[in-house]
Amino acid sequence: MTHIEYFKLQAKNLYKDWKNREQRLFVFDIRELFRLYGVKADEQPTLMKAQHLLAQALGRDKWSDLLHEPEERLAYTRAVLESERLEDDEVDANPVEEPVVEDVDESTLYRGMVQCLHCGRVFPIDKPNHLPSCDGEDWDLMPLEDTETDKK
How confident is the prediction along the chain (152 residues), in pLDDT tens digits per residue? Predict the structure, then answer.
């Protein structure tokens, strides 16, 4: 597989995970990418957007910059990306038990509005079953800091 084919595959993996709202195929944490690069909660995934986001995550301004790089630089970028995947696989293979948190300071918990990345609805974080037809997971909820309701 050429380096270009490899990056095209990674963009497709990002697109599939984004569309299915799950973290299965793509090497980077998708939620973190969305936060870092300002992907809006209601933004619909497309392969072109996934390619652009991958290029940004790899330090390029746009997808075409990645496609037109010299082979040596593509090889280096690919090696770094694959080593990232290996490190993640090693961590997954050796899970670390997380400490049990017994005392939770209720005053530090987020109590504001969130938006579901799956269905796009905005609601208070403590509202259960915000939409019966929505099959989104907890990771689909994005806190909204500066909404109109916060300003009132």
Answer: 899 999 999 999 999 988 888 888 887 788 888 888 888 867 889 999 999 999 998 889 999 999 999 999 999 988 888 887 655 554 445 554 555 556 656 666 667 777 777 667 777 776 655 555 555 555 567 777 754 444 44
* H or E segment and range at residue 14: helix 3-20
CA–CA dist 138, 62 (Å, integer): 31
DSSP for 53-118? HHHHHTT-SSHHHHHTS-HHHHHHHHHHHHHHHHHHHHHHHSPPPPPP-----GGGS--SEEEETT
pTM of the model: 0.56
Q: How far, CA to CA in Å, does 33 sit from each of 57, 148, 152?
A: 7, 25, 31
